[in-house]
Amino acid sequence: MTQETSEAFLNVSRSVTGRKWLGLDTATDRQAQLITQQTDLPDALARVLARLGVSVLEALPYLSPSLRDLMPDPSSLRDMDKAAERIQLAVDQGQRIAIFADYDVDGATSAALLHDWLGQLGITPIIYVPDRIDEGYGPNDAAMQKLAQSADLIICVDCGTLSHGPIAAVAGTDVVVLDHHVGGETLPDAVAVVNPNRQDESGDLAYLCAAGVVFLTLAAINRLRRTAGQVTPDLMQMLDLVALGTVADVAPLVEFNRALVRQGLKIMAGRRRIGLVALSDAARMNSTPKAYHLGYLLGPRINAGGRVGIADLGVRLLTCADPEEASAIAEKLNQLNEERREIEAQVQLQAMDQAEARGLDAPLVWAAGEGWHPGVVGIVASRLKETANRPAIVIGLDGPEGKGSGRSVSGIDLGAAIATATREGVLLKGGGHKMAAGLTVDSESLETAMSRISELLAKQGADQIGVKDLRLDGAIAPRAATVDIIEHLEQAGPYGAGASAPRFALPFLRVSFAKKVGQNHLSVTFVDDSGARISAIAFGAFDSEIGPALQNHAGKSFHIAGRLEVDDWNGRNRAKLRIEDVAFAE
Q: Where is the DDH domain positioned along the sequence (predicted)?
């Protein structure tokens, strides 16, 4: 990825929200020109490709990512062959299989993948999802021992890499771990621990989430089965689950992940998985699925079960074969998601007050409160991170202990800091990956623990991060902002973590219409000097200076920054701008 130039784009050194606008640097800009010249791709698309680090030769293939071309050899991961052989043995011998899954979307989709694959072979596994509050993250002795009584093989998905004790507690039952969380110096005594973030791994596949690891594991078993002349379940039809887990876990949409999500969205559009159809309908998702829908509509609803409801609701939905039951579960998850939002809003207000009092320019922004629901602390940590542009941790205290969750910013490895603090005994428990982590802390040692994590993050440069600048791919006129160009831009997607969506500036526009919508949104129509118009929406406009600036425009000219999208209201497709920032053109 290239670094943006420090020169203010369109001379916007301070927008109405206080941000500096940055365009592509000179080298990336030249690269975009070369792509346009040698491929005839539109300039806007070429600029996005160049920003994503795509070369001229890679440009056209990048627009059609192939699973076949991008798929790594599953056996390149340590213990993969052991895991595949052990699961295949269980299938061949009709052994009883149990799945221990994490309570988030990645865990639910990983378990559903295994359930689907095994189901095609006539096997129904036991699925166990721990309660977030009563049991916490990962395997525990009691749950594992209970599973061992009715299973010959336990497969831990999206957890287990640090579970030495619980895995040792079932020494008489084989355990396979399929995970992606950062590993410690030693691994638990399992038959296999397949994890691209083991310390002895190359790191080439560190971007995979657990669902991606499970997918590769099933591909490895299918390879064994083909060699033996056996039936192989259809993995391609399971890519909707992989896509959902990847996007919802905020895994980078790069390399193989990008192909998985791209193909998975196509499978999801076919509406064949009963549970996802029911959830899409409950969420009123009435357009072709995109990564945005997975991350902001479907993912939060599946997560709601584990956060504030019944932990296994998500996986029950994803494995459901009865439309009526699926509809009932989806409605329940929808309701729980609303409850989660209310709880989250209350915690967020208190956490923000605390964080601001401590200072938002520290290496670590953190807050802790007695009785804060552990199901929402991760979401609130994300809000703090976005506000401060710093790693953030939010902790719910419950008597002598506190359970928290953290989120990081690009370039700062929060998981490594949490792992170090755990090894040093500063934390009772902790683990995660670069961008997200969980922890358990002694309430009396809270200040000491946060201070130590802050020190570790400062060594990575977390205290040197400036105000979050707004990065733009270029400028585009309203007349050029067409449905056609938006569809071209979609070819470089899907967009998400590690591959941010295109953002353009529309310069020198005047407001011809502005109306407040709902409590704090603003609907606007802009016009340029040629008379070309474009409709726009600014969500949460009155939570910042954007709303007042546009509503009280007094005929002034503005530069508008945001993302282009297709508005298909009433079946009429047209380009629309989702406003992210505004600057006075003067």
A: 96-246
Query: Where in 443-532 does DSSP place strands (E)?
Result: 470-471, 474-475, 504-517, 521-527
In which domain, by residue range, is 526 found? 9-25+469-584
17 class by beta-carbon count within 10 Å (0-12 exposed, 13-18 middle, 19+ buried): middle
- Considering the domain architecture, whether residues 372 and 315 belong to the same structural domain is answered as no
Asked whether the predicted pLDDT for residue 425 surpasses 60, the reply is yes
Same domain, 324 and 302: yes
CATH number of the CATH domain containing 377: 3.10.310.30
Q: What is the pLDDT of residues 120-161, one digit of tens each?
A: 999 999 999 999 888 988 999 999 999 999 999 999 999 999
**Contact in structure between 26 and 5 (CB atoms under 8 Å):** yes
Nearest to 416 by CA among 212, 211, 203: 203
Decide which of 464, 497, 519 is a domain's last residue.
Answer: 464
Read off the pLDDT of residues 4-25 as tens digits, 9 standing for 90 and up: 456 899 999 999 999 999 999 9
- What is d(CA 257, CA 246) in angstroms, rounded to the nearest whole number? 7
What is the sign, positive or negative, of the torsion defined by CA atoms of 396, 397, 403, 405?
Answer: positive
Concatenated DSSP letters for 122-169?
Answer: T---EEE---TTTT-SS--HHHHHHHHTS-SEEEEES--TT-HHHHHT
Q: What are phi and psi of 135, to 5 degrees?
A: -115, -25
Tokens of 155: 């497969």
Q: How far from 47 is each of 11, 23, 449, CA to CA, in Å? A: 19, 10, 44
Which runs of E-coded beta strand occur in 256-364? none
Closest C-alpha among 102, 95, 111 to residue 151? 95
DSSP letter assigned to residue 355: H
Q: 501 Cβ partners below 8 Å, 6+ apart?
A: 493, 495, 563
**285 shares a domain with 169:** yes
**C-alpha to C-alpha distance for 45 and 33, rounded to whole angstroms:** 11
Tokens coding 161: 């890499």
Q: How far apart are CA 334 and CA 454, in angstroms?
A: 37
Dig out the tokens for 525 from the structure. 């129509």
pLDDT at 162 over 60: yes
N- to C-terminal Cα distance for the chain?
32
Secondary-structure breakdown of the chain: helix, strand, coil percentages, each rounded to the nearest 5: 45, 20, 35
User: Minimal CA–CA distance to 432: which of 202, 184, 192?
Assistant: 184
Tokens 């196509």 sit on residue: 266
For the entire predicted model, the pTM comes to 0.90
Whether the CA torsion 456, 458, 459, 460 is positive or negative: it is positive
**Are 504 and 474 a contacting pair, CB within 8 Å?**
yes
> Given a cut of 70, is residue 3 above it in pLDDT?
no
